[in-house]
Design a protein that fits this description.
Tachylectin-2, Chain A; 44% strand; 33 strands; single chain; Jelly Rolls; mainly beta
Length: 486
């Protein structure tokens, strides 16, 4: 049985669904805002990116962020540090640790000739204040990952023990429910780049990485279709090389968010369109989908592999994510919203590949800056909704559960003329319980992030004992995101 008292019941998979008719899953893309961190041209930055999301520091009442800035002066990425009161407006915080460009008055947070700081998370659960921050480091080849701990996020004790085997990109998050750390690393399989999972309970000893998700034949078809859709649409910018060859669609990276008893994955699909010989890389489009798991090991794609964060139209130069978008890490749940920090990149491939294209677009301003960090937002639980296929509406029957306490709440967007009606039925016979039928329910007729469902004849009565029940939802002109017992 499901447990809506413990977790909100979402619809990324069928975990809460016994059956439904006249309904379909709709994936919702987060709403983009303007970039929140852009390259500082005053110090020669051309690009910024991050494989970590902001961390809330209750000791200073500020958000902290460790991110990367690419300096054209040194031809390398520097690890930088910024703070924010609201997570939107960021200020470079002077750290004074490393000399750069002749001064220590800068926000360089970590610098090393042979070590790269990949991820930073703040851990307020660890009783040892010297381990308040956890990080993963890589060597100069950006391969294996080495755990490190710090009291302040600037001075690190990097483990000399066995590293986590990896290649190029990775993701790191703490799993509160499982009381463990999750590292999603990248290795190659017959499907090219693929996602592997390593776990640790102490941030010292890690399990061997195991394969959890890779691309397949459908991704190969999606690669060709998505490339062609952008090439054919004048609102978008075509990759500079589209040669029609059979390149392999690959899973470039996958941040993971533990959320309401689920693990929500954000696989970045690497879709090459042509070769870039100068950089031994590919031009193409990289976009983010959704995946879901109950144990972080067995994954399934969501909503027919619809794109969650996709490349953007050119829009006269207003957008940056015209070639690649990638999540910085697990989204942040706050203020009844889900905040999705992501990098937006204008192009993949060497600049020389664009020499034959429109100079009015592909000029110095296009290539400098080339990558920014953006924030997009989604309503709470808003990844996927169940929506009626037609104006006739649709029905959902939930899995069984015991309703011993609490009120029924739903997260639903009800449009004009629509409603959500709920009846409580016996889990076995499916007959409505007396006083809890659809006719007794007071319909929800407006947008509700946490709307309490009431029945006219129940008089506020809520507990139904230990007899298993189910919910039957009747939806008309409405999107249902979740339900739970408060």
């Amino acid at each position: 049985m499901i447990d809506p008292r413990r977790h909100r019941q979402l619809f990324l998979d069928d975990g809460a669904v016994e059956s439904m008719s006249g309904l379909r899953r709709i994936l919702h893309q987060p709403i983009n805002s303007t970039p929140v961190i852009i390259p500082a041209r005053s110090r020669g930055e051309r690009a910024v990116q991050s494989a970590s999301v902001p961390q809330w520091n209750p000791e200073i009442d500020l958000w902290e962020w460790w991110y990367k800035g690419f300096s054209t002066y040194t031809d390398e990425y520097l690890t930088l540090y910024a703070t924010s009161a609201d997570g939107v407006c960021w200020e470079e915080a002077e750290v004074g640790l490393y000399e750069w460009n002749g001064t220590r008055a800068n926000n360089v947070a970590f610098a090393s000739d042979n070590t790269n700081l990949c991820h930073v998370i703040r851990d307020d659960i660890d009783p040892d204040p010297q381990r308040r921050y956890k990080g993963l480091f890589s060597d100069e080849e950006h391969m294996d990952r080495y755990p490190g701990v710090s009291a302040d996020g600037f001075h690190w004790d990097i483990s000399e023990g066995p590293p986590i085997p990896s290649h190029d990109t990775s993701a790191l998050v703490y799993d509160d429910a499982g009381q463990r750390y999750l590292a999603i690393v990248k290795h190659r399989t017959e499907w090219g780049r693929s996602a592997f999972l390593a776990t640790s309970t102490d941030f010292i000893h890690w399990s061997d990485p195991e394969l959890v998700l890779h691309t397949d034949e459908l991704d190969q078809e999606n690669r060709k279709r998505r490339i062609q859709a952008v090439v054919d649409d004048p609102a978008y910018l075509s990759p500079p090389v589209v040669d029609g060859r059979e390149y392999l669609a690959q899973l470039y990276m996958m941040p993971v968010l533990p959320y309401e008893g689920l693990y929500v994955g954000f696989p970045l699909l690497f879709n090459p369109s042509g070769a870039d010989g100068a950089q031994n890389n590919h031009t193409g489009l990289n976009q983010v989908e959704l995946a879901v798991s109950r144990d972080a090991r067995a994954w399934e794609r969501v909503a027919d592999r619809a794109v969650f964060v996709g490349v953007q139209p050119w829009n006269g130069g207003a957008n940056f994510g015209t070639a690649q978008v990638a999540l910085c890490g697990a989204p942040i749940v706050r203020d009844e919203e889900i905040w999705v920090y992501h990098i937006a990149c204008r192009h993949r491939g060497h600049r020389d590949l664009f020499a034959h294209m429109d100079p009015a677009i592909y000029n110095d301003d296009f290539f400098d800056p080339t990558t920014v960090i953006c924030l997009a937002r989604l309503r709470r639980d808003g990844f996927v909704s169940l929506d009626p296929v037609s104006s006739a509406g649709g029905d959902l029957l939930s899995k069984a559960f015991e309703w011993t306490c609490g009120s029924l709440c739903v997260n639903a967007e009800v449009r004009a003329g629509g409603q959500v009606v709920v009846e409580v039925v016996d889990a076995g016979s499916l007959n409505p319980l007396p006083g809890w039928s659809a006719g007794d329910c007071q319909p929800l007729c407006e947008d509700q992030l946490a709307g309490e469902v009431r029945w006219r004849s129940s008089g506020g009565r809520r507990p139904l004992g230990d007899t298993p029940v189910r919910l039957r939802f009747h939806l008309r002109e409405a999107s249902l995101y979740s339900f739970w017992l408060s």
